Amino acid sequence: MDCPACSGPTIAFAVPADLREYLPGDDPGAALCTTCLELHPVADPPADPPEFAHVSDVFPDGEAAIPFALLVGLVDSLAQYRSELTALLERVERAGADPLLALDRLADDPSVDAAADLRRRRHQLEQLL
Fold first, then answer.
1. Residue 128 pLDDT exceeds 90
2. For an engineered disulfide with 64, which of 33, 69, 95, 107 has Cβ 3.0 to 4.6 Å away?
3. What is the residue range of 83's domain?
4. Pairing of strands 10-14, 29-33
């Protein structure tokens, strides 16, 4: 599936039941664009675990990967998803990754052309913590 926003490639993934409350809509999965980092709903996500390293090698792995992907996908709508973003920040931290450092590194990755201003959003997210 290509990104409807920029036509870039996406990584589709199933969202675990305990994280679906942070996903807009009712679909059980999402797709993250590897170029603009926009998040899109997926009605029939793959069962295989996603390879977020295709987005960037700075992307957290393990239990932090999916909450971080959701965080990145929602960060452009900070006002709308404030409580979701706060909860996702905490989930990424509990999984052993530093979400703000990961956002900094993602902002510095030349292969990423995020739709959101990651540096500005990172500063705003820091104030939520």
1. no
2. 95
3. 10-128
4. antiparallel
Q: Cα–Cα distance between 16 and 106 in angstroms, integer?
A: 24
pLDDT at position 39 is 94
Characterize the bridge pairing of strands 39-42 and 29-33: antiparallel
- What percentage of residues in the chain have a pLDDT greater than 90? 86
Domain assignment present for residue 45? The answer is: yes
- Of 73, 85, 61, the closest CA to residue 27 belongs to 73
| Residue 1 domain flag | no
- Model confidence pLDDT, tens digit, residues 83-111: 999 999 999 999 999 999 999 999 999 98
Look up residue 7 and give its DSSP letter: -
Whether 62 is covered by a domain: the verdict is: yes
Residue 5 lies in a domain: no
Residue 12 pLDDT more than 90? Answer: yes
Contact call for residues 49 and 6 (beta carbons, < 8 A):
no
pTM of the complete model: 0.94
Between residues 31 and 24, which one has the greater pLDDT?
31
Least Cα distance to 72 among 13, 1, 7 occurs for: 13
Number of domains observed in the structure of the chain: 1
Query: Within 10 A of 5 (CB to CB), how many other CB atoms are there?
Result: 15
